[in-house]
Amino acid sequence: MRKPITALALLALPVLALASGYSVPNYNPRDLALADSAVAAQDGAAAVYRNPAALAGLEGVDLVLGGSLIDLRSDWTATAAQQAAGVSPTAASMYPKAVFPPGIYASYGGAIAGHRFGVGAGFNIPAGGNVYWRNDWPGSTDIISVNRKVYAGYLSGGFQLVPGLKLGAGVVYYRTTELLDRSVDFISTQGYGKLGTSGDAWSYDLSFEWTPLRDVPFTIGLDYKHKGDQKLTGNATFLNVPPALAGQAADQAVTHELTVPNYLNVGLAYRVVPQLLLTGQYSFERYVVYRTDTFQGNQGVTIEVPRSWGNGHLFRFGAEWTTPVQGLTARAGFLHDSGASDANHYSPTLPDASLWAVSVGAGYAFLPGWSVDAAFFRAMYDTVDATNSVSFPGVYKDSANVYSIGVSWHVPVGPKLAQDDGRTAANLFR
């Protein structure tokens, strides 16, 4: 009984940092180009995800189809103690393996009994982890690869309570899949352990958008998504196990407790002149919910891995400029993320640290009702000296690039609504 549990523990312990700090940037092209600072300046169907209240400011049918490429890199350098112990090689890098998350949103906006309303649905991957180290890197017994995806579906709506004030709400469905593998030192031979689990949870979204002064293009926006507690189930398997250790490394069923954290975004938008919109936003990510990672084998024993993560605090800023070129809009932004990780608990399973990021992008209306948007986002992480890490020590330097492109289609339906009733900083002069 004890031996299979020991084998499961060897596989589970490396994911110490796997279940924290795994938020993915909002890769909808317009939002990404503004460093995701536009919670108070939504102007299309992507509001389904970022601020459902803004759906009540749309008119007719809106459709957004987008895709992204996320490229995460991490470089490791051995500590002085590791070099003195003869660790070889003394430096390693993740090999590039891009992922391509999609974003799909659709909405319809109109009016009923003198009040604007909007409804919409959407799908994206708001969180995950993609780590691919080489099989022979010195930390392979901690981790080789991690492939986690948190899929999310949204059904949202917005309603204009009074002129200038819109309220929004929605339901959120999370579905998570995760696969990880690592090498296992069986002394006489090198083996591999693999863990695959999946599970789901329901959550909800609450939001508002408020333009307090009728003729001043200044808007306040807020969006809150509640946490989603998931129970992932799957299997742990071991490969290339010596016959003498077959009982120690027994395959078994596994459950894993995983929470998608609470997210709060509060932002401002101000149109300085008709051609220039400025945005600012504070984002709170409640990663302190990860007190432990819990893995339970079907042998009846629970393994709890202590956590040491704090909450994430992000400050974002963006600018959108309607250029003199007809149909062309330019965008840029930057952000600072304080990071949720602790260097003493840093793990190569998921690169995470304080970071600065910059973004640029553009949109072009090439036909009536049609536009194409593109964005580039570059995240530069602080160097982490994880000499005393309880996982695999070392000095880590991480970076990430995100490329995004999308097409949007807008079709007015029914009589045109009065702009005075739905104006915000995003659309006041449109």
UniProtKB/TrEMBL annotation:
Domain of life, per lineage: Bacteria
First and last residue of the signal peptide: 1-19
SUPFAM superfamilies: Porins
Pfam families: Toluene_X
Keywords: Cell outer membrane, Membrane, Signal, Transmembrane, Transmembrane beta strand
Membrane topology recorded in Swiss-Prot or TrEMBL: Multi-pass membrane protein
Compartments reported by the entry: Cell outer membrane
Similarity-based family: Belongs to the OmpP1/FadL family.
Official protein name in the record: Membrane protein
Gene source species: Anaeromyxobacter paludicola
